[in-house]
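Hi R.,

As promised on Friday, here is the backbone we talked about, encoded as structure tokens. Could you run it through your design pipeline when you get a chance and send me back a sequence?
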């Protein structure tokens, strides 16, 4: 027998073992017979003994038994749509929350979000205040008016300017960077956070 024809698959090995078992041979006899023909390509004695015992007990199939656990079919278009709906409804939702909601593993949820939805979770960018378009326009106009007022006498005008500002300083627990993380698609700008939960305790700060 040529080397190429002696390279049998596991299922073919089992079929040979099954044939010899039905002929009444023992596991040791089957192993010695297969080694004499297949030589280095022969299965191990442990494997021959295991399958000989199974066939002697009445087993007919040469295939492997189905492995326990959930089949890898959770990455479906339906699950992608469900996860996308949950993420868009709450950008701060966590993987384990989605996994519990859909009854699939956290690893598969992460795979769908990163590879199929092309999203990642990043921290919000902190800004001191979120200005409306009206606020921006008013500040721009005020700056233009001030520049027009001082003209070429900038040094003299600046020496006479006294600025003052007042603000309430509140005590609160700032949101952590981890807490501010949100799911964003590739190319999207990072989210901003500017509003904090006001606390009851506060004091007035006046700055000159």
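Update: got your reply. Pasting your designed sequence below so it's all in one thread:
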């Amino acid at each position: 027998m040529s080397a190429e024809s002696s390279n049998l698959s596991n299922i073919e090995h089992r079929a040979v073992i099954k044939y010899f078992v039905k002929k009444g041979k023992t596991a040791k006899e089957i192993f010695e017979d297969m080694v004499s023909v297949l030589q280095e390509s022969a299965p191990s004695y442990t494997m021959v003994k295991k399958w000989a015992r199974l066939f002697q007990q009445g087993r007919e199939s040469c295939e492997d038994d189905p492995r326990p656990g959930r089949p890898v079919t959770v990455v479906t278009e339906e699950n992608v749509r469900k996860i996308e709906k949950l993420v868009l409804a709450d950008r701060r939702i966590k993987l384990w929350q989605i996994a519990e909601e859909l009854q699939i593993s956290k690893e598969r949820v992460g795979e769908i979000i990163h590879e199929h939805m092309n999203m990642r979770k990043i921290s919000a960018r902190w800004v001191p205040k979120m200005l409306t378009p009206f606020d921006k326009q008013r500040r721009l106009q005020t700056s233009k008016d001030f520049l027009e007022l001082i003209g070429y006498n900038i040094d003299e005008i600046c020496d006479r300017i006294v600025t003052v500002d007042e603000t309430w300083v509140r005590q609160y627990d700032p949101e952590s960077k981890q807490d501010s993380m949100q799911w964003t698609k590739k190319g999207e700008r990072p989210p901003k956070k500017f509003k904090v939960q006001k606390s009851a305790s506060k004091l007035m700060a006046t700055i000159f």
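One thing I noticed while checking it: The longest strand covers residues 165-170.

Thanks again,
M.
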